[in-house]
Each structure stands twice: as structure tokens, then as C-alpha cells.
Amino acid sequence: MLNNKQTSSDHPADLNVERRGMLFVLSSPSGAGKSTVASALLESDTNLIVSTSVTTRKPRPGEIDGREYIFVSQEKFDKMTANDEFLEHAIVFGNSYATPRKPVEDAQVKGIDVLFDVDWQGAQEIQQYASDDLVSVFILPPSVAELEARLKSRAQDSDEVVRARMDKATSEMSHWGSYQYVIINHDIDICVEDARAILKAERLKRSRMKGLVSFVRELGVGQ
Predict the structure, then answer these.
(1) Is the dihedral of CA 7, 198, 179, 31 positive or negative?
(2) Once rounded to an integer, what is the mean pLDDT over residues 120-135?
(3) Distance between CA atoms of residues 19 and 55, nearest Å
(4) What is the torsional sign of CA 68, 28, 136, 90?
(5) Three-class SS of residue 51?
(6) What is the pLDDT of residue 65?
(7) Which residues are paired to 184 by β-bridges?
(8) The pLDDT of residue 22 is above 50
(9) Biggest distance spanned by C-alpha atoms of the chain
């Protein structure tokens, strides 16, 4: 499921040239800032829509089914997996997570970019699905000590869960080299601007403008 919002584009190139939607993947260890960056991009960009993941974990206080996640039972999740309804799926801290396939494909056809807040496993599976449409960004914390401090300051998890997230962070960060872009989150505002710059530059790549040849011919310019 995709969160609905206005999808008019802020980018002149998109207005004149047909373009297939990108899959914009953000990954980071918990607490490094990807969710904050994702929220900021979605707030300011009218041609970007978030992919809402399906999960078997229980909702946290304030979470609404269909907004933060689509909450399902493990039995339903397994049926959806068997029916090939997911682009990717993984188990994280004992719970199943996945990306629904159809809403993403529908958005791409309309030229709408889809943002994914997934771990490195999910990013790898999405790459297998659509490597030509994928733009992957990994966000690193400025230090391990700062990452732990951020996790503790959220006061969402027990000390045991924080320790588990820190243990997992080392493994997650070891996969930074498989991403196209890496941002070190020293400052969240700068981190957001860096991510926004990547998104804009990727939209302007000649290879993504599927209607560019026809557009140029209409200008009276040969190949």
C-alpha cells in the first residue's frame, strides 16, 4: 500500500518528458536517521510516495494500520508470500516485514517515485526486482557512541532491545559498500539536503527520461 498524497511534480524535466518512477531506497541502522530523512523528503516532495510495509509485529502506541505499517497476522503474511504479492520480505527482530508489489508497480507506470525505508536485505531484494530503477542510499551515524545515545534518547525500547539493535547495527553497517550513495549523518538538516540532492540528480539522468528522444526531435534537433 502507498500513502496517498498530491503527486504533481516540482521538476520541470518531469513536466516535459515521460519518466518511469524510481525506487528510492534509504537504509541505515536503527537510530541513524533514515526515518527522519524519509519524513522530511515526503513532506517537501510532491512526486515522492512512501511504500507502506506489511508487518506481523504489533502496533506501537500512536501507530495506525495502513499509515505506518499494514499490520497482519503471520498466517496472512505467509499466504501473501506464497501468492508472490511482495517485492521483498525479511525477518527483523523476530517479526516479518515486506513490501507489497502492486502499488509500487502502479506508481512507477505513472512516473511517481517510491521511497523505501528498508534494511540491507530488503534493498538487495529490491535491486534484484528492478536494478535499473533503483537508487540506493545508506545513512551512517557519526560514531557508534552517538548511535547508542540516539537509541536511548528515543525511550521507545528497553535496554535489552537497545543492546540488540546495537549488535545488529555493526552487521548492517558492514553492507554500506553495496549502496550507490553513502551519507554520514553528522547533522540531520544537512543529511536531508544531501538526500534531496541525490533524488533530484537521479531524476535528471538522461537514462531515466524515457521520452527524451521524442522531445528533442520535436525541437527539431537530430540524434
Answers:
(1) negative
(2) 86
(3) 31
(4) negative
(5) strand
(6) 93
(7) 140
(8) yes
(9) 66
Q: C-alpha cell of 15?
A: 513536466
pLDDT tens-digit series, residues 148-191: 887 777 666 677 777 887 888 888 999 999 999 999 999 999 99
CB 215 within 8 A of CB 17: yes
Listed in sequence order, the residues at least 6 apart from 205 whose beta carbon sits closer than 8 Å to its beta carbon are none
Q: Is pLDDT above 90 for 18?
A: no
Q: Which of 117, 97, 127, 121 is nearest to 172 (CA)?
A: 121
Structural domains of the chain, ranges and CATH numbers in brackets: 12-211 (3.40.50.300)
Residue 24 binned pLDDT confidence (cut-offs 50, 70, 90): very high
pTM given for the model: 0.78
C-alpha cell at 174: 558492514
What crossing angle do the helices spanning 188-203 and 34-44 adopt, rounded to 10°? 60
Q: What angle do CA 58, 115, 18 make, to 5 degrees?
A: 145
Q: Locate cell 540532492: which residue?
A: 197
Overall size of the chain counted in residues: 223
